[in-house]
Design goal:
Helices cover 85% and strands 0% of the residues. With 144 residues, the chain is an all-alpha fold. It is elongated, with a radius of gyration of 33 Å.
Length: 144
């Protein structure tokens, strides 16, 4: 795994923990409201067997989704608390991610220039090859 990918994964993981702690409580409240609606419909109105089964399935699905969100919060709580405790770390990590991105772009566009063997300069070699090709073409034209 590359340094770029490691930095992106760390940053994405931290952002995902923050997203879960921001979004899950809202989703849980919406699901709880839906659960309350279903319970009120079950309690206040008479239903046939088919409607009761349908409402029971919807209630079960809402409960399972809410439990899943709740379990996810419980599992990530220690990580979230650690991040809150060390908010400077998150800022440092953002700075480090920018530094890694800058280094990647610098490395992507870097060029090599020989210090001692200047005859091996890529641009000089290309010019030399171009001149040799031109000379060969001219010789072939003259031969014709």
């Amino acid at each position: 795994m590359s340094a770029e990918q490691i930095a992106k994964n760390i940053f994405a993981g931290i952002e995902e923990v923050k997203r879960v702690f921001r979004d899950n409580p809202e989703q849980m409240m919406a699901l709880q409201t839906e659960i309350n609606d279903i319970q009120h419909i079950l309690g206040l109105y008479d239903h046939d067997a088919v409607a009761l089964v349908k409402l029971a399935k919807e209630l079960r699905n809402c409960l399972r989704k809410r439990w899943q969100l709740k379990d996810e919060l419980r599992l990530l709580k220690p990580v979230y608390e650690l991040l809150c405790k060390h908010e400077d770390f998150c800022e440092d990590l953002n700075r480090t991610k920018r530094d890694v991105d800058n280094l990647i772009s610098v490395q992507e566009y870097r060029e090599f220039s020989p210090r001692i063997r200047t005859d091996l300069e890529p641009s000089l070699l290309k010019k030399k090859n171009d001149l040799e090709k031109l000379k060969l073409v001219m010789e072939q034209r003259n031969a014709s």
